[in-house]
Amino acid sequence: MSPAPTVLLIGGVDAHLERFDALGARIVLIQHPDKITPYQTRTAHALLMLDYTDWETVRPFAEAARAVYGADAVVSLTEPGLDPAARLSDRFGLSDGRRYEVSRRMRDKYLMRRHLAERGLPVPEHGLVDGPGSLADFGERAGYPFIVKPVSTTAGFGLLRVEGPQDLDAAWARIRTLDGGRTDRGSTMFTVDGFLMESYIDGPEFSVESLSFAGRHVVVAVTEKLTDDAHFAELGHVVPARLPTTDRARLVTAVEDFLTAMDVTDGPAHTEIRLSARGPVVIESHNRLGGGHIPDLVRAAYGIDLIAYGAAWPLGLTEPLSAPPEPTAAAVTRFVLRDPGTVTAVHGVEDVAARPDVLLAQVSVKPGDTVRELRDNWDRLGSVAVTAADPDSAVRLCEHLVREEIRVDVAPAAPEGLRAA
Fold first, then answer.
1. DSSP collapsed to 3 states, the chain
2. CA 66 to chain centre
3. 400 CB contacts (<8 Å, ≥6 apart)?
4. Rounded to an integer, what distance in angstroms lies between the CA atom of residue 299 and that of residue 86?
5. With pLDDT > 90 as the criterion, what percentage of the chain qualifies?
6. Which residues, 6 or more positions from 49, have their beta carbon under 8 angstroms from its beta carbon?
7. Predicted confidence band at 2 (pLDDT cuts at 50, 70, 90)?
8. Residue 421 confidence (pLDDT) above 90
9. Residue 414 clears pLDDT 70, i.e. is over it
């Protein structure tokens, strides 16, 4: 019998370890102290708890772990672990030496835009924020509205929509508040290291879930995003997306061209794209799995376990997908949202979770917690995911459960003038 392969896993959640454990792999886990769970402590063959986003910290510990346990692959399936995993893989000679370059380009939205433009792919007008004057100059050049967002954070954190010149001072004040600090909503593992300006892209938004095998890209699913122009939080996901076959084909081709241009060769990718008036335009992409329970939706609709492929492929323990799958059902996530205030009661979650057509139901708040104004994905209060025979039926079911069966009672926030000093 051949010895069990060893994976040096950077960060992640329990589901990631479950898939490696099911493969029989030895797991050497480098995990942030804030993210460790009892399951990870039990399952990992070796565990190092440290801030793996700090290269000077993670490098010597990873080298020591490799010297003791070996490493057949260095993998991360979570956003903050992508760059250190790629950098270590290059350092250990486990890649072509360009994995970190590709990962960094995927995470840095400005580098991504420059790289695509150099290769002739469609990109919006864009530029880096360099003082308040750069905002005004960009508005004159690109027109209004335009978007300002951190170069390399996630989940909609810090995104601003500048409607006109009257918004420039407020936008600059917000940039000064956030730039150079850590994200403070949902996770503190991301550093805000500059802001990108880009012209607003119209049209419905989708995400494309793909797996790449030695340079061949297989689109597993196109996900329809439920959004609201009033904020940057995603309201839900629909798999498969409800769109004509021709439009789906346009999105698939655009994403395949994008991944090739970005030099992505292996593993999962989650690409956010709009079907604009001038055709498909990539908003951003990530060389990892999608969030918002998208892997659960894909598994329910297509029977494809994206996490399992993300674990098995780098260890050489699975065959590549030969062709895109066909859906056998539909699946939908709707997120639990409420107006700002203080939570007074939570009801119905367990009853909803027990239904056979519900994939998951969870609420992250409890009585006494504060509900903030909805600005990004980290302000959502919970989620419900369901499966049904078709997308429309799944959407109706999920919306009913979120709005009628799950109760999160909130005492409204006091008006500004009545708040205690």
1. CCCCCEEEEECCCHHHHHHHHHCCCEEEEEECCCCCCHHHHHHCCEEEECCCCCHHHHHHHHHHHHHHHCCCEEECCCHHHHHHHHHHHHHCCCCCCCHHHHHHHHHCHHHHHHHHHHCCCCCCCEEECCCHHHHHHHHHHHCCCEEEEECCCCCCCCCEEECCHHHHHHHHHHHHHHCCCECCECECCCECCCEEEEECCCCCEEEEEEEEECCEEEEEEEEEEECCCCCCCCCEEEECCCCCHHHHHHHHHHHHHHHHHCCCCCEEEEEEEEEECCEEEEEEEECCCCCCCHHHHHHHHHCCCHHHHHHHHHHCCCCCCCCCCCCCCEEEEEEECCCCEEEEEEECHHHHHCCCCEEEEEECCCCCCEECCCCCHHHCCEEEEEEECCHHHHHHHHHHHHHHHCEEEEEECCCHHHCCC
2. 29
3. none
4. 27
5. 78
6. 31, 32, 33, 36
7. low
8. no
9. no
Nearest to 193 by CA among 203, 201, 205, 183: 183
Category of 281 on φ-ψ map: left (φ > 0), alpha (ψ -120 to 50) or beta: beta
Contact present, 342 and 243 (Cβ < 8 Å):
no
Q: How do the domains of the chain map onto residue ranges?
A: 6-105, 125-199, 201-328, 330-421
Q: What tens digit of pLDDT does each residue of 288-338 get?
A: 999 889 999 999 999 999 999 999 999 999 999 999 999 999 999 999 888
Q: Which residues pair with 334 in a beta bridge?
A: 236, 384
Look up the CATH superfamily of 201-328.
Answer: ATP-grasp fold, B domain (3.30.470.20)
Q: pLDDT per residue over 137-179, tens digit each?
A: 999 999 999 999 888 766 556 788 899 999 999 999 988 888 7
Structural domain 125-199, CATH architecture: 2-Layer Sandwich (3.30)
CATH of span 6-105: 3.40.50.20
What's the whole-number average pLDDT of the chain?
Answer: 91
CATH number (3.30.2290.10, 3.30.470.20, 3.30.70.20, 3.40.630.30) of 330-421 reads 3.30.470.20
Is the pLDDT reported for residue 361 higher than 90? Answer: yes
Sign, CA dihedral 151-152-153-156, equals positive
Tell me what pLDDT residue 419 has: 40
Report the distance separating Cα 296 and Cα 310, nearest Å.
14
Residue 60 has pLDDT above 80, yes or no: yes
